[in-house]
Design goal:
The longest helix is centred in the middle third of the chain and has 25 residues. The N terminus and C terminus are likely disordered. Helix content is about 15%, strand content about 30%. Strands 25, 27, 31, 32, 33, 36, 37 and 38 form an eight-stranded mixed β-sheet that branches. Strands 1-24-23-20-21 form a five-stranded mixed β-sheet. With about 575 residues, it is α+β, with helices and mostly antiparallel strands. It is globular, with a radius of gyration of 27 Å.
Length: about 575
């Protein structure tokens, strides 16, 4: 899970070697254990503080204060400052007074608020937000954080004074505006482009436009956003990035281009259709990226020192992404993405034993690799195994569960049931779970001598929307059967078969529906895995309400829909002895 620290740190305390990617981990070590979390577990404080370089603000005797002061300010643009208030604050103004070098300047008050996603895509932000304003007598929005947006004169100098705080920033000259006669840069594809509707992500469009010599498309505020303030916040963050990269470009154009390319990096998935193969593979951690921008603009470094420190930010991080595709059995299939311009040799080592295998990953590519699990040599299956992937001292770790899930009375659950993988989840090591009112649970069990799958699917209040559950039997790449279940009682085999022994009972309730599926023996036989005796491979996908698509087991990346499978060791089941009839004797 991403770090939640939000303490203010002076720029002078940041040194180029200190880029620990995970708290408590050695430098360059990333553990991808697929922790599950709900959206907004982290909160949005880092979305606010990542807007600017900051120092702790001096406390002022007022209800509303500046929470952090910008160390570096770009002339001719907008400055965004986080605000704080005490318990006496009953109303928030829409504007406040401020001065810059003795001149009055315009200041508007807005709110960074969490927003829901209609569709979760590969490049969906980890913490999607929008910018709104509220009436002066309105209550602060739930989960919102206030900001002040200041218009900075193109010839600004001197101190900034606002809400009882005053300080002298490091002034930087305006960035070159985009030429309106230039063409808008082309989209790369839905899974390769940053979102236009998130003010914290639009900067990637702007720096890519600088790289390609074009201009970016405009930000696209949602219907609930304050359109003007949304665009100003988006452009303000982009302006800081453009100023930072322009500074180091003066010292080293090569380093500046390399950093820019990594911030908007993509890879090619050869399995996708021609013309739609680009996949985003850039860093996503807002806190770490704020540190990078802070270093690039650091007034305590000259431009060449800042350029080298920026390059060091990438050099201590694993240059690849990795996730588990198929975990079960005595081998696991993983995918690796290499966004760099060089071929990578990734060394794969099981931490609990086994040798080391070298995996070649071509430049700017997404590849699939099969890694053999260590030999158990007659011992019990481990409940957890860790695959370490390393290039030099930089590592990522993939944590896998048991090779086969033992199925014992009263039954074995599918799962965990999580949403599609996103770039942010892969990069930061978590999977997201569906909303609490849309959760799904499934159990494989044996009753009355037959195998059945019991499913309970929660449904949110409101109008009915599409809701379908798919059960797959057999290998994920080529399932023998796929059974479709619907809350209205309908079901059908996607393979068109009507096997003997298939029984389906579906019941609907106000806030959920339940399905009880008696599995035909023929389906189980065709689901037996070659790698594990007495085991079958099964999968579950739910295309649930509000567009949430969830899976049991390691989910696919957001651009795919194949059903992942889990290996169930049904040979571990021991039916209880039959109970003696009253007054009878056992045979």
């Amino acid at each position: 899970m991403a770090s939640t620290e939000s303490e203010s740190q002076p720029v002078g305390d940041v040194e180029s070697p200190q880029f620990a990617p995970r708290r408590g981990d050695p430098c360059g070590s990333f553990e991808i254990s697929d922790q599950v979390r709900a959206r907004f577990d982290i909160g949005i404080r880092w979305s606010i503080l990542s807007l600017l370089l900051f120092l702790p603000a001096r406390t002022a005797f007022a209800e509303i204060t500046v929470a952090a002061r910008a160390v570096v300010v770009i002339r001719g643009g907008d400055l965004v400052l986080p605000l704080a208030s005490d318990s006496r604050t009953e109303a928030w103004p829409r504007t406040v007074d401020a001065r810059c070098g003795g001149r009055s300047i315009e200041v508007r008050i807005g709110w960074i608020v969490p927003r829901s996603l209609e569709v979760i895509g590969w490049t969906s932000p980890v913490e999607p937000v929008s910018i709104i304003t509220i009436d002066e007598k309105a209550e602060p929005p739930p989960g919102g954080s206030p900001i002040a947006v200041l218009t900075i004169p193109v010839d600004a100098e001197g101190e900034i004074e606002i809400l009882g705080s005053s300080w002298m920033p490091e002034w930087r000259n305006p960035v070159t505006p985009f030429d309106p006669t230039q063409a808008v840069i082309a989209a790369r594809g839905p899974d390769a482009d940053p979102p236009l509707d998130d003010p914290m992500e639009w900067y990637r469009w702007a720096i890519r436009a600088d790289l390609e010599g074009g201009r970016p498309p405009s930000p696209e505020p949602g219907s609930d956003a304050d359109s003007e303030l949304f665009r100003r916040v988006a452009v303000s963050l982009a302006t800081e990035w453009r100023a930072a990269l322009a500074r180091i470009r003066d010292a080293s154009p090569g380093i500046a281009n390399e950093i820019t390319e990594r911030l908007v990096a993509t890879v090619v998935d050869e399995r996708r259709p021609m013309g739609d193969r680009a996949i985003a593979a850039w860093p996503t951690d807002a806190r770490s990226l704020a540190n990078l921008r802070r270093v690039l603009l650091d007034p305590n470094m000259d431009s060449m020192e800042a350029a080298r420190a920026g390059l060091a930010w990438f050099e201590v991080r694993p240059p690849f992404l990795a996730w588990v595709l198929e975990p079960g059995g005595d081998r696991t299939t993983i995918e690796l993405a290499n966004p760099t311009a060089d071929e990578l040799v990734v060394l794969a080592t099981w931490t609990d034993g086994g040798g080391t295998e070298a995996l070649l990953v071509p430049p700017r590519s997404l590849v699939r690799r099969v890694v053999e699990r260590p030999s158990i040599q007659g011992g019990p299956d481990p409940t957890e195994e860790t695959l370490q992937l390393a290039t030099g001292q930089r590592t990522r770790r993939l944590v896998l569960g048991p090779r086969a899930l033992p199925v014992r009375p009263p039954g074995r659950g599918f799962g965990p049931i999580t949403l599609l993988r996103t770039l942010g989840g892969v990069d930061q090591g978590f999977l997201e779970v569906p909303p609490a009112d849309s959760e799904t649970a499934a159990v494989l069990r044996r009753r009355f001598g037959r195998w059945e799958i019991f499913i309970e699917a929660l449904t949110p209040a409101g109008p009915d929307s599409k809701d379908v559950i798919y059960l797959s039997f057999g290998p994920g790449s080529s399932p023998a059967e796929v059974l479709e279940l619907r809350p209205d009682g309908g079901f059908e085999s996607r393979r068109g078969s009507s096997p003997v022994g298939l029984e389906v009972e579906i019941r609907r309730f106000p806030d959920r529906w339940r399905a009880q599926v008696t599995v035909p023996e023929s389906w189980l036989v065709r689901s037996i895995t070659d790698s594990r005796a007495g085991a079958v491979v099964l999968g579950l996908r739910r295309d649930g309400p509000d567009g949430f698509i969830s899976f049991a087991g390691p989910p696919p990346p957001a651009w795919r829909r194949e059903i992942p499978v889990q290996t169930f060791a049904i040979g571990d089941w021991q039916d209880p002895e039959p109970m003696e009839s009253a007054g009878g004797t056992s045979p």
